[in-house]
Specification:
- This protein is mainly α.
- The protein has 15 helices and no strands.
- About 80% of the residues lie in helices and about 0% in strands.
- It is globular and about 55 Å long.
- It has one domain: MFS general substrate transporter like domains (Growth Hormone, Chain: A), CATH 1.20.1250.20.
Length: about 425
């Protein structure tokens, strides 16, 4: 069967419903995250250094790893459509609570807990949509469909962040910064309620699980199935190596994001003018969003000519070069070039590897393997943020960190993805 092009996938009667639900939620993610970043990292009364920023990343990503062992159990046992529907409803209610705390200026344990809940639920939703996608399209169209789902989602997050920032600038004329951020989070809760409604356009079992997967689950079943996921990947070594390469790339990207945040917050702009820093970071992320789009668009063409394995290997090697621009000069133009090209190569690697992993899995193992995938990648993201925090000064200026990031990509391509170990295995 011939692969559908991007426009054909967008018009696909089943995929378009999944895209609508996913992308609506991810636009809302961007709005929510922009308000949260503004409140926690770009408030005039709070100074931001590398460690505090890294801890913010860790808090955000911690639930991704905590709920990881149980995601497979949920997604392989109950209707994924219903799980995503109720998760979006709960997430919308949770944001109403977050909005109340931000309005009061609370930054303690109560805010931390409700933020952890919001991001933990988000992990289940995205994993469920990723696990269900292969059931809506044929194998030849899988790379293009995955590229559209993941990359369209990433672009939506960036657009949502820009929308949230624009709303905040407008609202600042009418109240203080905390009240503006609270109102943005309140508005974002409505986006999650809308996403839950859009999920109902999918049939109850249309995105799985399949009938043979349904059996009772216990508290320990999640860990057992994580073990099954690791065992499955042990039999498909190329998929496992691709996941590790993606983890390295995502961890490196997080380290560079920390550089961008600190440079814009404390170096390119006055620390006493956090709004200017937030504007600069929004510009860098917008440029990265353009790179993400380009990376997704070139992936299907590159794979058709080189194959998945060689394309992934090429992308990780090309990923060596963008951080070196930042090592040569910590100025806005090198930062923006690094953001663009790093996003092109990184996103092209990610969507190709997602399709590689999906192609290896029958639906019986899909939720379990993607639970492992999520835990490994998010563990790398947290590690990247924490390692960067130990190296970076508060100014964000560092030659060492970009060079380390480049070396990680080089070693990953030369050793982990070397041809003798990373090649087509049926």
């Amino acid at each position: 069967m011939q692969s559908l092009n991007f426009l054909g996938l967008l018009r696909h009667p089943r995929l378009s419903r999944l895209f609508a639900a996913r992308w609506t939620g991810q636009v809302t993610d961007g709005v929510f995250q922009s308000a949260l970043a503004s409140f926690l990292l770009f408030s005039p009364e709070r100074q931001t250094d590398a460690l505090s920023a890294a801890l913010a990343f860790t808090i955000v990503l911690l639930p991704y790893s905590i709920v990881g062992p149980f995601i497979g159990t949920i997604l392989d046992r109950v209707s994924r459509q219903k799980a995503i529907f109720f998760s979006n409803l709960i997430r919308g209610i949770d944001l109403l609570v977050i909005s109340f705390f931000i309005f009061q200026g609370k930054t303690g344990i109560e805010l931390t807990v409700v933020v952890l809940v919001a991001f933990g639920i988000n992990r289940l939703i995205l994993a469920g949509l990723s696990a269900g996608l292969p059931l809506l399209t044929d194998q030849p169209s899988l790379i293009s469909a995955n590229a559209m789902a993941v990359t369209g989602g990433s672009i939506c997050v960036v657009l949502g962040g820009g929308l949230g920032f624009g709303i905040r600038k407008f609202l600042e004329f009418f109240g203080n910064a905390n009240h503006s951020d609270a109102l943005i989070v309140f508005v974002a809760s409505g986006g999650y309620f809308l996403s839950s409604i859009l999920v109902l356009r999918l049939k109850r079992n249309e995105i799985g699980p399949l009938e043979h997967e349904r059996k009772s689950a216990s508290f320990t079943q999640g860990f057992i199935e994580m073990r099954d996921g690791f065992a499955f990947l042990n039999r498909h070594v190329d998929a496992a190596r691709g996941i590790l390469a993606t983890a390295v790339q995502r961890g490196s990207l997080t380290a560079l994001l920390l550089v961008a945040l600190l440079l814009e917050r404390n170096t390119f702009n006055s620390p006493d003018n956090p709004d200017a820093g937030l504007s600069g970071l929004a510009l860098a992320l917008s440029i990265a969003g353009v790179g993400i789009t380009c990376g997704a668009l070139i992936a299907p063409f590159g794979v058709s000519r080189l194959g998945r394995h060689r394309w992934i290997r090429l992308m990780i090697f090309l990923n060596v070069f963008p951080p070196l621009l930042l090592a040569l000069s910590q100025q806005p133009i090198p930062l923006y070039l690094t953001a663009f090209f790093g996003s092109v190569f990184g996103q092209s690697l990610k969507v190709t590897n997602d399709a590689l992993v999906q192609s290896k899995i029958d639906d019986y193992f899909r939720g379990r393997v993607f639970a492992v995938y999520d835990v490994v990648v998010n563990g790398a993201i947290v590690s990247g943020a924490l390692i960067a925090s130990l190296i970076l000064p508060a100014s964000g200026k560092s030659i060492v960190l970009p060079i380390i990031v480049s070396l990680f990509s080089l070693i990953t391509g030369a050793r982990l993805l070397r041809k003798s170990k990373f090649s087509f295995v049926s």
